Amino acid sequence: MSKISQSKRIWPLVIALSVGIAGCNLFHPTESHDAENDDAAALTLDGYHEFQKSNYDSARRLFSRAIAADSGYSEAWVGLSKCVLNSQEGLNAFELVSYAQKADDKSTSNGFLEMQDHEAHLISKGIDSVLIYLNQFIVRDTTGKTDKKVRFSDIADSYAILLLTKAALRIRNVQTELTSVLSADSAGMKLNLNTLNDLGDSLKPFLKDMAAASEAIKVAPDASAEIIKAYLPDSTRQDIGDEFYTDATVGLANTVIQLNDRAQTVEEERTDVFFVFGNGMDDDGDGCVDEEVVDNYDNDGDGEIDEDGRDYRSVVLVKNTFITKDENNTAQVNKNGKVYDLTKSQVDYLNTIEKYETIDIDMNGKMGTQDPDEWQYVIRDPDDRDENDNHLLKFAIDLKFPGKNLATKIKNKELIRHDTDVNNIKYTLKKRKEMIGGCWVNYSEEDFKKWFEGRNAK
Ligand SMILES: [Ca+2]
Ligand SMILES: [Ca+2]
Ligand SMILES: [Ca+2]
Ligand SMILES: [Ca+2]
Question: Is the alpha carbon torsion for 413, 417, 418, 422 positive or negative?
């Protein structure tokens, strides 16, 4: 990465950030001056003057007094947050983005992964202290409890930076290489779900940060697309044209919000069913292995959504709208493209990946590219799937999940997925075929023995 293209990329960011926390034109307090009487407007104006002189401590006290006088005074909330942010070295929004840009190899990494531990710790603590105030402001703004002079939308880009930085620091804690939580190629932008397994106990907090960032991204999508670019390795950008980056970013934001909604609501004891991705094992007890596409729809017809999700490399969020290269390696826009409604994960098609050449998802004896039914939707076009309310994959057409209501089916799956001791089997294959149906009907006794391999008997 040359210096020139690096600085070229920074410029849109400077423009984007100039309206946010890094900028100073948020303040338009009334010129009334009665600070002695705890007039919120006057206190805020005084606070702003102190802020301009970099007297952050006294500015902070004035903004706090303004909030005490009128808790709905939005400019005081934002002023207070700016003080907390600016009084900490290296913590203004522009500096955080430039950290993201710093890396020895920008194609696979970003600066947060390479910084010293103590520096990462300081930044993380500093962001938390700002978020204490910003989060209170956002709750007030979104529930109509401010004067609306400054809105969440005015600071959304900076908020996204803080949250994305937090998320980047969490990734840093669990792995030294950001290969591809997010990646992209000519087919679209993707979440590498398998990478999320590495996060372990950090997964839920990570998703929470990412979802908060995603909400901000949706409020300020154009600025956020620029910010996202700064945080992603270069390798994620080469195939997506700037004109589509905002759509792809918003689509991805929706996916993250969906994932987080599920992560925060799923019963603790069933977390593994939904948040271990692509492990090549049946995690929910229906006999199928990694059967679901994580698309927020039920793909096998058992009534549950995105249970036992697979690893795949084509979450196509925007279909055919990407840049392709012609014979001169010049970027060309595919004009025949169609942009899907990005409020859901609009998966167009799935590519089999190498590891599934040896994993039989439906246990019918064929796998990988030899069994395209495991990888193709009954209806390919996502809009048509919505219209027909049919999101099944082809392999699931003939699957049966007999039984009464969903709660009973889940109870049975729970009994079976915890029946893991091959030397003390409570639910025989015959019983499983009756209780669940699903893919169990395809199992031989030999397959059944293999199901227990790698499971911890409890
Ligand atoms: Ca399964
Ligand atoms: Ca699995
Ligand atoms: Ca399902
Ligand atoms: Ca699904």
Answer: positive
The number of the ligand nearest the C-alpha atom of 285 reads: 1
Q: Give the pTM.
A: 0.75
> What is the total count of domains within the chain?
1
Q: Please identify which residue in the block is written with the tokens 């400019």.
A: 75
Q: Is residue 359 part of a domain?
A: yes
Quick: pLDDT tens for 243-259: 667 777 777 788 888 88
CA 379–ligand 1 middle distance (angstroms): 22
Give the whole-angstrom CA distance, residue 234 versus residue 246.
Answer: 16
CA–CA distances in Å: residue 56 to residues 85, 114, 127, 260: 10, 30, 16, 36
Which-ligand-closest: CA of 272? 2
Query: Does residue 363 lie in a domain region?
Result: yes
Ligand 3 centroid – CA 282 distance (Å): 12
Segment 133-152 mean pLDDT: 94
Q: What's the CA-to-centroid distance between 362 and ligand 1, angstroms?
A: 9
11-28 residue pLDDT tens: 445 444 444 444 434 444
Task: Determine the Cα–Cα distance for residues 399 and 280; give it in Å rounded to an integer.
Answer: 20
> Ligand 3 centroid vs 394 CA: distance in angstroms?
13
pLDDT tens by residue, 358-413: 999 999 999 999 999 999 999 988 888 989 999 999 999 999 998 779 999 999 99
Rounded distance, CA 38 to CA 33, Å?
A: 10
Q: What residues have CB less than 8 Å from 213, skipping those under 6 apart?
A: 159, 160, 163, 164, 167, 253, 256
Nearest bound ligand to the CA of residue 281? 2
In a 3-state reduction of DSSP, which class is residue 147? coil
Burial, 145: exposed, middle or buried (Cβ in 10 Å; 0-12, 13-18, 19+)?
middle
**Closest ligand relative to 290 C-alpha:** 2
In terms of residue numbers, what domain contains 393?
A: 269-314+349-401
Structure tokens given for 188: 């679209």
Instruction: Give ion ligand 3 contacts, CB < 5 A.
Output: 298, 300, 302, 304
C-alpha 275 – ligand 2 centre gap (Å):
9
Q: Is there a contact between 52 and 59 (Cβ–Cβ < 8 Å)? A: no
Q: Which ligand is nearest to the CA of 303?
A: 3
* Nearest bound ligand to the CA of residue 193: 2
Q: Ligand 2 center to residue 301 CA distance, Å?
A: 17
CA of 172 to the centre of ligand 1 (A): 31
Q: Which ligand is nearest to the CA of 255?
A: 4
